[in-house]
Amino acid sequence: QSSMVATAALLFNAARAGIRSCNLRSYSMMAQYPPVPLFYNDLYEVPLPPGHRFPMAKYRLVRLGLQRELEPSNLATFLPSPLAAVSDLTTCHDATYVERYVTGTFTPQENRRVGFPWSIESVKRSLSSTGGTVAATHAVCNRTPGAPRFAGHLAGGTHHAFADRGEGFCVFNDIAVAACVALRDYKESVQRVLIVDLDVHQGNGCAAIFADNPNVFTFSMHCAGNYFSKKQNSDIDVEVQPGATDAEYLEILHSHLGNLFEQVRPQLTFFQAGVDPHEADAFGKLKISSAGLKRRNRLVCVRQRRAIASELHFLVCGSLADAQRRWRSLVCALATSLTLAKLSHTSPGLPIFSVPSLKVQLSA
Fold first, then answer.
1. At what angle do helices 246-264 and 290-307 cross, to 10 degrees?
2. Which sign, positive or negative, has the C-alpha torsion 154, 160, 162, 165?
3. Is the domain covering 2-360 a CATH 2.60.120.200 domain?
């Protein structure tokens, strides 16, 4: 039950920024639709050595904020993220790699590359983090009457995991796994998948995994030179110069989005809405404001809607690595989900959106 409640995390500090900007008519219209399914699991928060830089408490803190805001409105229902099945993981990951991680036979060097010490708890965390994205994908791809147009997942967005190795706090690539599962399980309705990755770092794992897959198109817009490992080749890579502010960033994005959706004509879209381009992020090297990120997220949604009347869509909310004591940054990022939920509920032609992955550090 606590894990069902836990999903509230991502989408509901969004409500702080989103609901306040909704007029009463829009809010009442949203209330007429079924609640959005949101996936989360308390397994995401695992013990780490003292002084470890990864902010595990972010999941719980975000969950509490979302739960406080979303549950009373009945806009969302919170569901537990299941553990990913091995048969799903191996749709894009090497079977030996999966087995070695699950059984604890990684080398010390591999554990250092991932960034987490191995433990049973970390295995459960990685499996549930991937399983939540897969579950959200099933939720939006399910063609039964009443299937949601929007689903969310608090964790995930682990786009630095490759088929046979992990790095950058990413063990399994949940976006890649979920995309492959959709192509496997929904062949009649999903043949073209688009990944729109706006994290400040390139989605190198997704780029490598889908390099030779014509059914998945990868678009990554990231900070130039901000790579912590070897750059891969996405189908489209757009580099933004360090120090870019809202106007420059949004102009670059706007120039690519229209043609992108027309070119790919996706039936399922993953949007990695990373918040580490935010000016408060110590490692992002960009200067995007909270308002700029919110405009970015809405731009993706609106441009997609104008370009093609897709029936399936899925949103991934990405990472803000260093935002301690900066709630406005978090609220801005989370507002993505509510903005898209509002648009999907009040605009009949709008595709399905979901929200996996948010990496935000907060103070207690």
1. 20
2. negative
3. no
* Residue-by-residue DSSP string for 48-60: --TT-SS-THHHH
Residue 25's pLDDT band (cuts 50, 70, 90): very low
Long-range contacts of 257-262 (CB under 8 A, 24+ apart): 257/299, 257/300, 257/303, 257/304, 257/307, 258/303, 258/306, 258/307, 260/194, 260/196, 260/219, 260/236, 260/307, 261/194, 261/303, 261/304, 261/307, 261/308, 262/307, 262/308
Interval 140-184: pLDDT, tens: 888 677 666 677 777 888 999 999 999 999 999 999 999 999 999
Structure token digits, residue 142: 């399910």
| The pTM of the whole model exceeds 0.70 | yes
CA pair distance 305, 163, nearest whole angstrom: 32
* Sign of the CA dihedral with 47 first, then 52, 54, and 56 last: positive
Helix axes 95-102, 120-141, angle to 10 degrees: 130
* Range among 6-15, 159-168, 221-230 rated most confident: 159-168
Strand order in the sheet with 36-40: 76-80, 36-40, 150-153, 353-355
36, 77 contact by CB (below 8 A): yes
Residue 67's Cβ-side half-sphere holds a number of Cα atoms within 13 Å equal to 18
Q: List CB contacts of 90: < 8 A, sequence separation 6 or more.
A: 98
Distance between CA 321 and CA 130 in Å, rounded? 19
Taking a C-beta distance cutoff of 8 angstroms, is the pair 206, 218 a contact? yes
What's the burial of 168, exposed, middle or buried (CB within 10 Å: 0-12/13-18/19+)?
middle
The three-state secondary structure class of 174 is helix
Q: CB neighbours (10 Å) of residue 330? A: 28
Q: How far apart, in Å, are the Cα atoms of 185 and each of 134, 142, 182, 217?
A: 11, 10, 5, 18
The values of phi and psi at residue 46, to 5°, are -120, 155
Positive or negative, the CA dihedral 301, 302, 307, 309 is positive
Contact yes or no for 55/3 (Cβ under 8 A): no
Strand partners, 239: 222
